[in-house]
Amino acid sequence: MLDTPRGNRLHIALFGRRNAGKSSLINALTNQELAVVSSIPGTTTDPVFKSMEILPLGPVVLIDTAGIDDIGELGALRIKKTLEVLRKTDLAILVLDPGYGVGDYELELKARLAEARIPVVAVLNKIDVAGRANLAELEQSLGQKVLPVSAKTRQGIEELKRELIKAAPADFEAPYLVGDLVEPGDLAVLVVPIDTAAPKGRLILPQVQVLRDLLDNDAMGLVVKERELKAALAKIPRPKIVITDSQAFLKVAADTPREVWMTSFSILMARYKGDLLELVRGAKAIKHLKPGDRVLIAEACTHHRQPDDIGKVQIPRWLRQYVGGELNFQWVSGGSFPEDLSPYQLIIHCGGCMITRREMLYRIQAAKAAGVPIVNYGIFLAYVHGILDRALEPFPLAKMEWEEDS
Amino acid sequence: MLDTPRGNRLHIALFGRRNAGKSSLINALTNQELAVVSSIPGTTTDPVFKSMEILPLGPVVLIDTAGIDDIGELGALRIKKTLEVLRKTDLAILVLDPGYGVGDYELELKARLAEARIPVVAVLNKIDVAGRANLAELEQSLGQKVLPVSAKTRQGIEELKRELIKAAPADFEAPYLVGDLVEPGDLAVLVVPIDTAAPKGRLILPQVQVLRDLLDNDAMGLVVKERELKAALAKIPRPKIVITDSQAFLKVAADTPREVWMTSFSILMARYKGDLLELVRGAKAIKHLKPGDRVLIAEACTHHRQPDDIGKVQIPRWLRQYVGGELNFQWVSGGSFPEDLSPYQLIIHCGGCMITRREMLYRIQAAKAAGVPIVNYGIFLAYVHGILDRALEPFPLAKMEWEEDS
After folding, report:
1. What value does the mean pLDDT take over residues B153-168?
2. Would you call A223 an interface residue with chain B, using a CB distance cutoff of 8 Å?
3. Second-level CATH architecture of B275-403
4. Is A59 on the interface with B (CB under 8 A)?
5. Does domain A179-259 have CATH number 3.40.50.11420?
6. Low-confidence residues of chain A, pLDDT below 50?
7. At the topology level of CATH, where does B6-167 sit?
8. Percent above pLDDT 70 for chain B
9. Which chain A residue is nearest to residue B230, measuring alpha carbons?
10. Domain ranges of chain B
11. Dist. CA B382–CA B398, nearest whole Å
12. Residue B93 above 50 pLDDT?
């Protein structure tokens, strides 16, 4: 993860007065206790760029502006430094101090951010000690929503992550699809069944994206149909990983030596597009479903329905058999995603190939906030076929999550 | 070629009176002397489907309607059989007999073809013996252009091919890209340089199309950057063919064993999209260029010009150096392609990735009709880099054409 080029990472700048609690908020967002770089005001006027992981956003660069906060520098120099930071910022967090609220410093910053068209999420920190009584007043002064949080007790931190996802640029991307699983020179085998559903003369986008990510990471990809896989594996040196379309998983699993990693395009995409950990948690909830439970099946696009449509027919049929009774299915498609997810015991979402990572993460985060497990088609099918276990081997965290008792 | 599934081939039906010369026209189009199936009228009422190659259209199915021509069947049965043929026809040729001209038979057929929205090319055959005196009258009676030809002397046959290309459905495709060069189980290596011009997160379409065509033909493709090629070739069994981006040709040629076929995506696309033989003929004309000659550089789309644009800068610079003097360059782009090509000594066309095969073939055919050599960027660059010779090895006909003295 630390090798992710800084250029690909979402850059999040934290602004706020010296005592607003920017550092503790960084710790809360990253689930880490970081050493405080310096507590002496004015030791440096340069912002500090820290590469870190905020789940589920992925690798980000947090820009710590301690050196240029309200007392770090004054006047022209502070403005110059602030503008320098803004040029590198995709997204800003403005941390309000309950003791000061919204003053000239905050209003000037907000104006600069608006000028630079940088989305800003405002938070009121330290609500564990200072409460949130003046929240409405702060929102009015600042002219935007202010999220009450406590870095110390983690109150509001999940909501903050959701707001960050919502405010992130529409095209922000995860920096890895498969590239972090291979070393330079490694060989990956891509198994691409060609059936009547395959678009004429093309490969589907996830297959092309995986190939490109392999090349970008100095690895190579052998593309083969499932029928030719066994013969191919006998001829070539042992690959690092075999990646298959889910529909061919059982045959491919049988033909791939047990010691070779094997996963599916869907699972790579679930990680790339969404939040693999959360979706694996969702898969674990399937076994707790009971007849009569409410299941939301959500598709991000309104595609032409096949007679044996996966969302309308296959998944409901399989779940009915599994729980041994009727379930209460509801379907949404296209841009609509219910505000209130609390009535559901499970959400099953499509792979989200037609929506941005931001939108997919936002939906997953919304489910998490509502306490409703969410899984996507790819993970669901891997579970149904009994192969999720093997398919998660390349992803130790997700594998641990999967094996942990739910 | 005979393995090309009939479904992919352009279906061309020949209609006309018994003595109009349909069979001799088929022979002229295919450059073959075919055995006449039967000269006894009425032996069969079924149309005969013949898979054959018409250059540069590629593999087609010619539907010989001898059994249902004006004397083969009468009335309802003929109409029924004709409608059956029309359901399978992409393109019709109506052959007029100079002795009969346009009568009820021709007018009824034309009405049926119009009803079925099938494009029709009308020809007046036997002009070597019967002349073309009544051409204008025939055109008026039929209400469309009539092409004067002689199957015997081949007069007008190239123009007929051009009309066929023009009238063909916009989406008709060549049935092979690389699939005819590999056997099931064969391995092809695709060398894909990743530079700043490569679109982010993707492969370009010709690369994807080649991969898909390999899979469609039960072969497999190893995708690798040029830097990793040498190490890859050392590890894997000998591939059937190495296909590279033109820009990496010299390095790839050095790293690929001499006995392995090696070509470029551009050359595969030139064959798929256009007429490799004719473009190779065009390449041979480069060495005859003299200072002051007129060269047309044609691009099918109006892309954003790079500072070192291939059509505007690189090709002219190279040609000036080659002939040792200034040339008279003219440029066209987008949909415009000059009606009169006769002023030019050479036409250099882009790869045509944004236009249909029909349009590209039409342009090549127009150049051929005007007697002006035409080459495309891919073949031109292969020539310039001195690698056309090796890159044509997989294509014996084109290789022979290349080696023949011009």
Report:
1. 88
2. yes
3. 3-Layer(aba) Sandwich (3.40)
4. no
5. yes
6. 1-6, 35-43
7. Rossmann fold (3.40.50)
8. 90
9. A185
10. 6-167, 186-268, 275-403
11. 14
12. yes
